[in-house]
UniProtKB/TrEMBL annotation:
CDD domains reported in the protein's UniProt record: MiaE
Organism: Gillisia mitskevichiae
MF GO annotations: tRNA 2-(methylsulfanyl)-N(6)-isopentenyladenosine(37) hydroxylase activity
Protein's name according to its UniProt entry: tRNA-(Ms[2]io[6]A)-hydroxylase
Transmembrane segments: none
């Protein structure tokens, strides 16, 4: 369904398990950034009522995920660390078209968002299957389902409003780019690292 070019090496889970506090902190901030991204898309494209309605719900859900991760952090006696930079997302952002029409920019932002959700979904699936922590295994399974829904939301809006744009071709370009980019990741205890 996600059509990613390269799957994460399962050994990444061993890295994650070596520092659960770090992965949880990084994950919490990823959820916060996802909520902020949805709000940014709304702000830039407020003339589309269905997009606004759907992305408001998505932003609320991402904030709920942030809260859920924070609750796990507290329950385990950890502290939410400082916000982390997400090099993967920053590199992916460079691929987006910054010029062109507002519509082109919106479609690219939606595809960029779909890609992040797809990779997060793939990582959550791997965690749900491989992590030696029953609570986190179930947690990441549930979030995997949610992320798949977010991926679908972003792709659907890109196709709906990008009728005069070859959205499928642009998505294939992004998948190729991400497939090369992700080769440099999977070495750190972060969601995209």
């Amino acid at each position: 369904m996600l059509h990613l070019k390269l799957e994460t090496d399962p050994r990444w889970v061993n890295i994650v398990e070596s520092n659960i506090e770090e992965i949880l902190t990084d994950h919490a901030w990823c959820e916060q950034k996802a909520a902020t991204n949805a709000i940014t898309i709304i702000t830039l494209n407020s003339e589309y009522p269905d997009l606004v309605t759907e992305l408001l719900e998505l932003a609320k859900e991402e904030l709920e995920h942030f809260e859920m991760v924070h609750e796990i952090i507290k329950k385990r006696g950890f502290k939410l660390g400082r916000e982390r930079k997400d090099s993967y997302v920053n590199e992916l952002y460079k691929f987006m078209n910054k010029g062109g029409s507002r519509l082109n920019s919106m479609v690219d932002r939606l595809l960029f968002s779909a890609m992040i959700e797809a990779r997060s979904c793939e990582r959550f699936k791997l965690l749900s299957k491989e992590i030696n922590d029953p609570e986190l295994s179930k947690f990441y399974h549930d979030l995997m389902i949610s992320e798949a829904g977010h991926y679908t939301t972003f792709i659907s809006f890109a196709r709906k409003y990008g009728k005069d744009i070859d959205v499928d071709s642009r998505w294939k370009e992004l998948v190729e780019f991400e497939g090369e980019l992700i080769k440099s990741y999977g070495k750190h205890e972060t969601i995209h690292g």
